[in-house]
Design goal:
The protein is mainly beta and 1504 residues long. 12% of the residues lie in helices and 32% in strands. The protein is built from 24 helices and 68 strands. The longest helix is centred in the C-terminal third of the chain and has 20 residues.
């Protein structure tokens, strides 16, 4: 934009729009003063005047002393002038004379004042992956896109995210690129940080030391960074050591640097990250002034309002750098008072170009130091309530406050030096009538405010005073919410993927479709409407993305316990979550705040396993605190509520006692202080004690040191190592001493113990007083029990590595309910008795008995000879006694499970006689006396071997209600007891009535193998499957109760009639023999086939099978036209040349998706490819039905099957600047070079549009064959390349024709017609006089005649001067007339075979020249001055183009109307180069199938 354009934009205050991409790198010219040179002025782009804060009117001066000053309204005259200035939008803050004394007011910047090229200081407010949000002066907000935040062209590798490059509060220099009007009262300011734009106007001469400029990192060396300023010929150098810690400085990143020195001749600029001195008083051109410069100024004028008191002002006017003038708004004057003629340092805040460039300065301390104010601002959270002292008020802008923490009710707020500045915009001052609310404010009064955000540039809090915002239940930020919190909102928007819920004017969240109900819905329920209330819980908060996820699942909303932190996890705790993911290894159950656990795959194999998105209640079976992992189970029998385990909704509270250590805790910093005969006394650091209510909340917590005892056997897992360690510690501590509970070892110097310990018990008496005494109850119960108060607080510890590992992986058991039968645990021997040994697997009080028979595999007489106290053992829980809370242990290596009586195994296979109660679906429900219930699935009524492939049985027809049925017990699940007690036990049995299993004496394993489960279904297995339903063309079958699989039509039958009517041939209840094609227990997917196990083996080469067309593909690349579904989950594809025998136009349009076709297998699938294998197919009649191919229908499979000059056809599979690639068959592709596509030149960028993929190319000529590489070159030119004029056929003196190929300053390059020969027409051979110059010729102009002057090798020189052809004009005209007569005669007779005798070179040259001349005789250059023989008919007479008309048909019509001759074969010659890209050859525009059939018939008749 030029200076005049900027001036008009400034004066009109129009809304800016984004520039075009090609203008992006243009430098922004900075506005120059319109007055005489040397006069630099600065005004204001913002016409809005500022009424001072503390402004006092006439009434204020007359007020009695001692009363509070009250800010009066702006005088009417001044207010009217202000309103007029703001409405005009172009008023300047100075008079016509450009001088400091002419400035009348110091306004603020508004969006309407910002023009393209405005330079601003800014601070990063938010950084996302797509853009930066910046805080601008005067509470404005701007946006920087990713492309404008970094220099992508300078980056040698992908740059990190913007959040890693820029930090919140970081100061930057920005340039305005556009101001887009989003709505009537809202504008979006687009900015750029790129140095090429920000430093526009600077050059090597104007660059000076002391400038503060943005620079981009161009290269990174070992110790130095090379920087670019966007100034030609200059490169900056910066030492890496000067970079602040954590700053990103990779190539492409933008830094703010201080110019130390500049060597223009060497092209180097020495830079530093540390700010130096200001620029000083040296004169500076206005074009070189940039935002961010630190300058030395002098205050030349203090602007005051009417009635203002002494020391108050509404702005300042300062001069700097010679005669430059800047204005300082009252909000940017800093804390100290300023006087007239005072000299001080200031920083350039903004430079606004226009008719008169406006310069804004700032005196804020943190901006002068170029430091971020984010840390101080973040000490106050968004949503906090503060006490704000009114500082001042600016009309139509807002109120400034000095904020301090909110005072408690009845107390005054504390004023301190740490007060933070705040600003309340006018719209947030009150709900209505903001101006009146502002006038009612008293300067110095304290008001309640609430924080809405931060202004990082000016270091102020964004406040609100609206009554709605000050309500207790109003949310203003996501940070006020916490996961699991219960909220109530209003539905604001309903989408396909969920519901948006508005919690307040500032906070909205999304309830995903999966979280609307416990069971996911396919769409949003109709009961949920816009503006309806919805109760939810906070599921997840992502502040950096401003995202809030909510859940409305009733199971989660009504649950009193919210699982939000890992510290809350307890073994056997019952928690509620939802299934967020299902994998082969299990399901992921997610809770609040991205807490999750794993539900193993074996749990998902159960019939009651939840599906994806469902709410589910689970039991925590394992807690791995080291890896932060949870194992879950659907078995809730032994689960306990969080309240029973002491867990609380608050994160981290858990069930930990309020003081002291707890079992399973890992403790460190152990010091041995005394060694006794039985162990070692230690001192360790415990958790801090809970404060009493009387203690001050702000008091620091002191470290609490506890005493512990480690038994000798617990010093190590190995007895010998434990003994040696005990002796070593005894020696270091001065020998063995007795335990004295009254002794104080706090002053004893201890010996450090390297290993970490595990707490076995909170309280233990090493002296044997009340042995095994311990207290694990709540602290309140301890205080009531006076007898236990004398027990010293000594914890029992263990240094065994096995116990340490168990505590880390969560297998350390602290409660009896955490034990599982038939599971191994790491344990230790507590005591040895005559009848066995007492063992523990975690906490000391958890004891179990291992009888003598369970100690070892051999006979044991004396247990003390086999095991010792403290010995580490591997314990198998053999039996649990839940009433007495005891367990039986087995210490034998192989366990004792094989010796236990197998009561359940004896019942499996037992015969039963049951009464049929009903038939539910495919299950027979039956019962017997004694509370026995059972069911027989229909697949358990017949043997698999009795079923024939493809033939089904209906066994349910013979079953009647109340009849008796003989069965055998196949499986007995765990008994479920009613709440009344053990008397009413109800046992449900899974039965079978297969004839082969009704025999006596069969092993139990036969019955267990007959039970079909997910884990027993393997690929290739045979199963009995019953038809459950036919839905959407899929046959759904059950192989067991609740276990379904699908059969696609191609795997159901080979009869096409059956495939088209599945419901008529398959009835519910029919049982078939099926083969498993695919099984996934985790995803609950099962694919079956009714054709037999070898259904996929028929897909061999040459096989004929049925296939279902899935989709039609584009042929780009490999030429694949369609994909088919085959039997056995196989997939196949068909090449475009294998669709039909004849060469059809648009063959893909003839295909109908979802239709069955008979196909022939050309290439079987690779067995090593697995499920990704693809079979190559053909649907040509010759391949499928054996139809005989015609000669023109044969597909050449190899290059050696072709001959040069042979005519071939094929389909375009690719087209680019290398040529057009034509598929001649599925294995052979030929190429047509660009020069062989047409007689005319075709532009490279138009080739792909002229020949789209799938286009039929007919009768192409083979011009070159490379049998070794299989390369075939084709041509569409008439006669192939046989008539091409070569360099050998040209001699000096020949007269030729051609076209201008290139124009140079020394001559023309001409391409001969019908040839690839180029020659030079020197500038001296163009014309006999100066009337015709090289400028008269353009590329493509016709050269009617040229004479060969000289030849050297392949170089040819031509001449086109008229003097070269004197005496030859009459002969040529006679020859042309004769040639025309001959052509007329040739058109009247049939074309005769070509003579075998070759033409002489001269005849060939003339023939080629004549053909080219006749074909383009209407395209003579304008310079020739000759008239065309045939005047062209206007194309408007041809009418609109028909969509069904091919380009060459259109060309034929044009040729007929314009009088152009047709080609030899009857078709109009079609010039592809003249065929514009706007006429695209797509599948939809190239005709219909009926026309294609007619073309095919016409083609066949022509061939015949």
């Amino acid at each position: 934009l030029r200076q005049s354009q900027l001036g008009s934009l400034f004066s009109s205050c129009c809304t800016m729009v984004k520039r075009k991409p090609d203008e992006e790198d243009e430098a922004f010219p900075r506005g120059k003063p319109s007055g005489p040179s040397g006069t630099s002025v600065a005004g204001a782009a913002s016409p809005a005047p500022a009424a001072t804060v503390k402004q006092a009117g006439e009434a204020a001066t007359a007020a009695a002393p001692g009363k509070k000053k009250r800010r009066q309204a702006v005088p009417k005259t001044e207010a009217a002038a202000d309103e007029g200035q703001e409405a005009a939008g172009a008023a300047l803050p100075f008079d016509t004379v450009a001088s400091p004394q002419a400035v009348r007011f110091a306004p603020r910047l508004r969006p309407v004042d910002l023009t393209e090229g405005t330079l601003l200081m800014a601070a990063v407010r938010e950084a996302t992956n797509e853009e930066l949000t910046l805080s601008l002066p005067y509470n404005l907000i701007g946006f920087v896109s990713l492309a404008q935040a970094v220099e992508q062209s300078a980056a040698s590798e992908p740059l990190p995210k913007l959040s890693q490059i820029y930090s919140i509060g970081q100061l930057v220099l920005a340039v305005v690129t556009s101001v887009v009007e989003v709505s009537e009262k809202r504008q979006r300011i687009e900015l750029s940080l790129r140095p090429t734009l920000a430093n526009a106007g600077l050059d090597g001469e104007s660059l000076a030391a002391g400038m503060w400029l943005p620079a981009v990192v161009q290269d990174e060396e070992e110790h130095v960074l090379r920087l670019g300023f966007g100034i030609a010929g200059l490169q900056g150098l910066l030492k890496k050591g000067e970079l602040p810690e954590g700053m990103m400085a990779k190539p492409g990143c933008i830094l703010q640097v201080w110019v130390v020195s500049a060597n223009v001749s060497a092209g180097t600029v020495r830079c530093s990250m540390k700010m130096g001195q200001s620029l000083g008083n040296a004169p500076l051109k206005l074009e070189a002034l940039k935002a961010g410069f630190l300058v030395h100024t002098r205050i030349d004028k203090v602007l005051t309002a009417k009635g203002a008191q002494e020391g108050e002002n509404i702005g300042l006017v300062a001069t700097f750098c010679g005669s430059l003038v800047g204005i300082i708004h009252c909000h940017h004057q800093g804390p100290n008072p300023i006087k007239y003629k005072q000299r001080l340092s200031a920083r350039v805040l903004a430079v606004v170009p226009g008719q008169t460039t406006v310069v804004h300065l700032t005196l804020l301390p943190h901006l002068l130091d170029w430091t971020s104010h984010a840390t101080a601002l973040h000490s106050v959270g968004i949503g906090d309530r503060l006490d704000g002292e009114v500082v001042d008020f600016v009309a139509r802008f807002g109120v400034r406050f000095r904020c301090s923490p909110r005072a408690e009710p009845g107390k005054k707020s504390k004023k301190s030096a740490a007060q933070i500045a705040g600003f309340c915009p006018m719209p947030r001052l009150a709900d209505k009538e903001q101006e009146k609310a502002a006038e009612a404010l008293d300067i110095g009064s304290s008001l309640e405010c609430r924080v809405l955000g931060y202004n990082y540039l000016e270091g102020a809090l964004i406040l609100t005073r609206r009554a709605y915002d000050l309500q207790e239940d109003t949310l203003v930020s996501l940070t006020e919410l916490s996961p699991g919190q219960l909220v109530v909102g209003t539905v604001s928007r309903i989408t396909e993927f969920g519901v948006f819920v508005k919690l307040s004017e500032y906070v909205s969240g999304l309830v995903h479709l999966r979280h609307l109900t416990d069971v996911p819905l396919a769409s949003v329920s109709k009961r949920i409407q816009v503006d309806s209330k919805l109760k939810c819980r906070v599921l997840r908060i992502t502040p950096e993305k401003r995202q809030l996820s909510l859940t409305a699942k009733k199971s989660l909303v009504k649950d009193d316990f919210q699982f939000t932190a890992f510290e809350q996890a307890r073994r056997d705790m019952l928690v509620t979550g939802f299934v967020s993911n299902v994998q082969s290894y299990g399901a992921i159950v997610t809770f609040y705040d991205q807490m999750f656990g794993l539900l193993p795959a074996k749990e998902m194999e159960l019939d009651e396993a939840p599906a994806l998105g469902m709410a589910v209640k689970v039991r925590i079976t394992n807690v791995n605190r080291k890896r932060q992992r949870l194992a879950l189970s659907l078995d809730l029998a032994s689960g306990k509520s969080p309240e029973e385990l002491g867990a609380t909704p608050s994160a981290g509270s858990g069930a930990r006692p309020r003081h002291g250590a707890f079992p399973g805790q890992i403790v460190s910093e152990l010091e041995a202080v005394r060694c006794t005969q039985d162990g070692v006394l230690v001192r360790f650091k415990g958790p801090p004690a809970k404060k009493s209510e009387d203690e001050e909340a702000g008091a620091e917590q002191k470290d609490v040191f506890m005493r512990g005892f480690i038994p000798k056997g617990h010093l190590s897992d190995e007895a010998e190592v434990a003994e040696k360690r005990h002796k070593k510690l005894a020696k270091q501590l001065g020998g063995i001493k007795d335990f004295d509970k009254a002794s104080d070892d706090s002053e004893v110097t201890g010996v450090k113990v390297e290993d970490e310990g595990v707490v076995l018990s909170r309280r233990f008496n090493p002296a044997g007083i009340e042995k095994d005494a311990e207290v694990d109850k709540d602290e309140k119960e301890d205080e009531k029990d006076e007898k236990k108060k004398h027990i010293p607080l000594i914890a029992l510890l263990s240094l065994k590595p096995s116990m340490h590992s168990a505590a880390q992986d969560g297998s350390f058991v602290t409660e009896f309910e955490g034990l599982e039968e038939s599971r191994f645990y790491a344990g230790y021997i507590k005591d040895v008795r005559d009848f066995g040994a007492l063992v523990s697997v975690g906490a000391w009080r958890l004891s179990g008995l291992a009888n003598k028979g369970q100690l070892t595999d051999h006979f044991v007489e004396k247990p003390e000879e086999e095991v010792t106290v403290g010995q580490s053992v591997r314990v198998l829980i053999a039996k649990l006694d839940t009433e007495r809370k005891r367990f039986k242990a087995d210490l034998r290596p192989e366990g004792s499970a094989k010796n236990e009586p197998a009561v359940l195994r004896k019942e499996v296979g037992a015969p039963v006689k049951m009464t049929v109660q009903s038939i539910r679906g495919l299950d027979i429900i039956c019962s017997a006396k004694g509370g026995i219930r059972g069911h027989v699935h229909v697949t358990q009524l017949v043997d698999i071997d009795s079923l024939e492939a493809g033939k089904g049985l209906e066994p349910l027809e013979t079953i009647e209600t109340k009849s008796m049925i003989d069965a055998r017990i196949m499986q007995v699940p765990k008994s479920s007891e009613s709440t009344e007690g053990a008397k009413n036990k109800i046992t449900h049995l899974e039965l079978t009535s297969r004839p082969s299993l009704m025999k006596d004496g069969l092993p139990a394993s036969d019955y267990e193998a007959a039970a079909v489960r997910w884990k027993t279904i393997k690929k290739g297995a045979q199963v009995a499957a019953a038809v459950a339903e036919v839905r959407k063309g899929i046959l759904w079958m059950e192989v067991a109760g609740g276990l379904r699989g699908r059969v696609v039509p191609l795997d159901a039958s080979t009869d096409l009639t059956v495939l088209n009517s599945l419901p008529e041939h398959y009835q519910v209840g029919q049982v078939y023999k099926a083969h498993v094609l695919h099984s996934s227990s985790a995803k609950k997917q099962l694919d079956l086939s009714l054709l037999g196990a070898d259904s996929t083996s028929v897909l061999c080469k040459g096989a004929k099978v049925l296939a279902r067309l899935e989709k039609v593909e584009g042929v780009t690349g490999k030429g694949v036209a369609a994909f088919f579904q085959l039997p056995g989950r196989a997939r196949g594809f068909v090449h475009i040349t294998e669709l039909f025998d004849f060469w059809a136009q648009h063959p893909r349009k003839r295909l109908q998706p979802k239709t069955f076709y008979e196909v022939s297998v050309l290439t079987p699938a690779d067995p090593d490819a697995g499920d990704n294998a693809r079979v190559e197919l053909s649907i040509r009649a010759s391949a499928v039905f054996g139809r005989k191919e015609a000669a023109e229908e044969k597909r050449p499979m190899k290059a050696d099957e072709l001959q040069v000059g042979q005519k071939v056809s094929g389909y375009v599979v690719n087209a680019n600047d290398k040529g057009v690639f034509v598929a001649l068959s599925r294995t052979l592709t030929g190429r047509i070079r660009l020069k062989a596509l047409s007689e005319r030149v075709i532009q490279r960028d138009a080739v792909a549009k002229l020949h789209p993929p799938g286009e039929l190319i007919k009768d192409a000529t083979v011009v070159e064959i490379d049998a070794e590489s299989g390369r075939v070159e084709l041509s569409l030119r008439k006669g192939g390349d046989c008539d091409i004029l070569t360099i050998e056929q040209i001699s000096v003196g020949d007269i030729v024709t051609g076209r201008v190929k290139k124009v140079e300053k020394y001559g023309l390059f001409v391409r001969l017609d019908g040839s690839s020969v180029d020659g030079l027409v020197h500038i001296s051979e163009v014309s006999d006089n100066a009337s015709v110059s090289l400028d008269s010729y353009k590329v493509g102009d016709r050269i009617q005649r040229a004479k060969v002057l000289k030849m050297e090798g392949t170089k040819v020189w031509f001449g086109i001067k008229p003097s070269l052809f004197d005496g030859e004009m009459e002969d040529e005209e006679d020859e042309d007339d004769e040639d025309e007569d001959e052509d007329v005669e040739m058109e009247a007779v049939e074309e005769k075979p070509k003579s075998k005798t070759q033409n002489t070179p001269e005849k060939t040259k003339k023939s080629a020249a004549k053909k080219s001349a006749k074909a383009e005789e209407t395209e003579e250059p304008a310079a020739s001055g000759k008239k065309r023989k045939n005047a062209p008919v206007p194309l408007e007479k041809l009418g609109a183009d028909s969509d069904d008309e091919a380009p060459w048909q259109r060309a034929a019509a044009v040729a007929g109307l314009t009088g152009k001759q047709a080609s030899a074969d009857g078709e109009a010659s079609f010039v592809f180069a003249d065929f514009k890209a706007s006429v695209e050859s797509s599948d939809e525009d190239e005709g219909q199938d009926d026309e294609d059939d007619e073309d095919d018939k016409a083609g066949k008749s022509k061939l015949s």
